[in-house]
Here is the input.
Amino acid sequence: MQQPLDIARQTLFAPAGIGESELEQVFARLMTPSVDMADLYFQSSRQESWVLEDGIIKQGSHNIDQGVGVRAISGEKTGFAYSDDIVMPALLEASGAARAIARSGESGRLKAWQAGRGRGLYAPVDPLETLSTERKVALLRQVDAEARRQDHRVEQVVVSLTGLHDVVLIADSDGRLNADVRPLVRLNVMVLVVQDGRRENGSAGGGGRVGYEYFLEEDRAQAYAREAVRQALVNLEAVDAPAGTMPVVLGPGWPGVLLHEAIGHGLEGDFNRKGTSAFSGRLGERVASEHCTVVDDGTLAGRRGSLNVDDEGQPTQCTTLIENGILRGYMQDRMNARLMDMAPTGNGRRESYAHLPMPRMTNTYMLNGPHDPEEIIRSVDRGLYAVNFGGGQVDITSGKFVFSASEAYLIEKGRITRPVKGATLIGNGPDVLTRVSMVGNDMKLDSGIGVCGKDGQSVPVGVGQPTLKVDALTVGGTS
Amino acid sequence: MQTNLTRTGSTLPSEAELTRLVEQALNEAKRCGATQAEASASVAIGLAVDVRQREVDTLEHQRDRSLAVAVYFGHRQGTASSADFSPASVRATVEAACAIARHTSEDPAQGLADPDLLARDVPDLDLDHPWELEADGAIELALECERAALDADRRITNSDGAGVSSHSSVRVYGNTHGFLGAVRSTRHGINCRVIASDDAGMQRDYWYTVNRVPSGLEAAEAVGRKAAQQALRRLGSRRLTTRKVPVIYHAPVARGLLGHFVAAVSGGALYRKASFLLDTLGEQVFADWVQLTEHPHLPRGLGSAAFDQEGVATRERDLVRNGMLQGYVLSSYAARKLGMVSTGNAGGVHNLRLEPGERDLNGLLAAMGDGLLVTELMGQGVNLVTGDYSRGAAGFWVENGEIAYPVEEITVAGNLRDIFLGLQAAGTDMDTRGGIHTGSVLVDEMTVAGE
Here is the structure.
C-alpha cells in the first residue's frame, strides 16, 4: 500500500510542479525574523452523498475542494491567507498577505526538510472507491426495507450515506513535512412513526475512518435501521418530562457528550491561555469525584475523531485530562502550547485549508469505574435515566453547559418506568463531575456520529463513557 | 506594523466572467444529454481582523469560489460542485453530476422551477457597497472597539477579542429555461466579546453590528461599550426555583423562536410530514394579533433577494395574517411534492417581519409584571415533529415590571404550538441584523426549571 506522503505529493504537488525548492521559495517569502513559526496546509478533498427518501434514491452529490492555507505566527499574532488554487503565484501572494502580521526584515534560513513517519491508525484508502455505486444504492434500499419491516407505524424513512476522501500535506518552518490520507464515512437513518395522529421520530447511525464495507460487516447498517425505529416507537409512549433538579443516570456511549461540553471545551488550550475558561489556572485541583478519569485520545484505530497526525503535523496522543478527579492536562495546538510553555498534544485541528487551526478534541471519554450499571439505577429513588442525546453547548466562561436528551426514562424507586419526552439538561461544568457518585464498568464509545462546532468550524469527533450517576442535575421538562 | 495589501473589493471577477462559466456548464450538461440543467457560480472575498487585549490577534484574507451544477435526465437528478473554475474542472463537475443522475430514481417532483415563475425584471436592491478598508484601518477600528469595552468599567477584566470584517461576493445563477441572474453584494461587521468578573466568577457577553453598507454600522466604540454593558449586567447571576411564569424573549433571541416557525412551515418538513404545523394552512397558528410579512425587496436588507436560488421571482406577502397561516415556505421541489406552487423561498425566507405593537421593551416588562426576560438560549432542544421545546437559558428575573437580578443555569420549556398561540405582544425594539426582523416578544407562560 502507498504511503500517505507519496499519495499527498502526487495529489497536491505534482499537478502544480511543486517540489522542495518551490517550498523553500515560499518559506523564504513567509519567514522574517519576527515570525516564530509558519506553515502551509495543502488539502484536496472529495466528498459524495446519497439520500434515499420516500423509498427512492432522491439525491446524489459529488463535491471537490482543494487549496492551500498559509499561516505566519509572530508572538500571539497570526496572519492567515488561503487560496483555492494550488499554484506558485497564488502561494507567493498568500505568503505575502499572511506575513503582513509581522515586521519585515531579512528572512531566516529554513532547516532541511524532514518527512514525518507515517502511522497506520486507518488505511489511506479512498472510501468513495470501496463500493460500486450500484452497491451503495442497494445498501440504502436495504436499510429502508429493514426500517419499514420493523413496524407498520413507520411512515417515513430517510437514509443518507456520505463518504469523504481527504488528503492533506503540512509543511512547516521547522522543516517538517507530514501527510495524512483520511477516509471518513457515515450512514444515517431517520424514521418517522405515526399512531393515532401522534408523530414521533427516531434516528441512528454511525461510521468512522474506514471504507463503506464497514456498514456491511456485523449487520451494522441494518442495526441502525432497527435502532432508529425502536427510538421512534419509544417516543410514541413518552409522557412530559419532569422539571427541576434531580439525580440523573446517563447511559454508556454517546451520552459522553456530557464530558465534551461540561469539561472538554473548557480544557482546550486557547481558552486557558487567554484566561477565559472557567477551568483557567486550575491544573492540579479537584474538578471531579475520585471515580472520574477522563482522556482525550486521538490514537484509536478507525475512529471518527482519530488522526494519524493533527492539522499541524503533530502526532496525536492519549492525553489524560482528569485523573481520579484531579485536573491533569489541557489539549493544545502548537501555538498555545508554546505560549503556555507546555508540550503540544496533537489537538491542533482545522475544518479545512480555509480555516485557522485551534485546539480541538479528538475522542473524549471517561474510563470505567467500579459499579454495575444495574446497581446504579437501583440507587436512585426518583430521577431520570437518559440514554440518547441530540447535542449540547457550553459557555466556556461561566461554565454553564446544556445537552439535550432525545430518549429518556423516569427512574422511580430504583426501577426504570415510563419514557419521557426529550428535555434539555443544564449544569455547571466545573462542578458537575464533582457530583458523579457512581461510575459503571460498561464503557462504550459512540457509534461515530459526532460533529463539534467551535468558532464557526466543524470537525468530526468521538465521545464515550460508562453508565454514570450525577447526584443533582437540572432537567428542563414541563411537569 | 506594515502591510502590503490591496483594498478589499478590488479582485472580484465580473458578472460576465461568471456568466460565461455558468453558460459553459449548461452547454456541457446539454452535450452530455441532460434534458434540463442549472448552475451557479460564486466568488466571495473578505478581510477579517481580530484584536485581543489591545494587540492584533489574527489577520485573515479570505477568498472562496464555488461552482455548483444540477442536471436532470427527465426526472432524475444529479448534483456536483467544485472550487476549481478551469474548463477541465467544469467539464468534470458536470460529468460527475451526470454520473450520479444515472443512479438516482425517477422522481416526478424533480426539475427546474416552472418557467413562468422565473424573475423577469430584476430590481436593484442596493446590496453592493464595498468598504474601502485596508488591514491597518480595520485593525485600528477593532482596537478602538475593544478599548471602549475594556475601559468601560474596572470589572471588565478580560477580553475574548474584537473583530472587524468586510466581505464582498458575486454570484451568477442560470438554468436551461434561459434564466440568468447575477447578484453582487457586500456585508460588513464589527463585533466585541468581553469578560466581566467579580468574586462570584466570570461572565462573557458580546455585541455586534452587521450591515450591507459601512456607514450603516454602529460606531466601533458604541459596539465595545454595549458589549461591556452586556457582560457587566450578568454579574451576580443566580438560579431560579422551578416555576411556571410568563417569559419575554429579548429581540435577538426572539428571532430564533420565529426561525422555528419558519422551519415548521418549510416545504421539506411538510412533505416529509415532519412538522407540528402540518396541514395548518388557513388555520390559527399564532395569537390573533400576529402579522408576519415577507419583504424580499427591502433596499439594503440582509435577507433581500430579487429571485430565489432557483431563479423564482420573490414577492412581498403575508405569511401570517391575524394569527392565521396564509402560506408555506416552498421551493419548487417541495411545492410539487405538496401539489402547490413555489413561493420563491428556495434557500429560505427573505426579510420576514413580525409587525411590532405599541410598546418598547420596558413597556413589555411592565405588561409582564413578574416573569423571566430571556437574553440567551443554549443547545438544540427543539423537536419540530412534535413542537416540544426545552432549551438552556440565561437572562433576568423581572419583578413588578423592573429587572430585579440576572439569572443563569435554568431551562425554559413548553410546546411551540402553545408558545405561538400564547404570544401576548411584540415590542418596537426591532432587531434587523438577519433575515428575520423582530422586536422582543412576550409569551404568556412557560415552564422554567432550576433549583
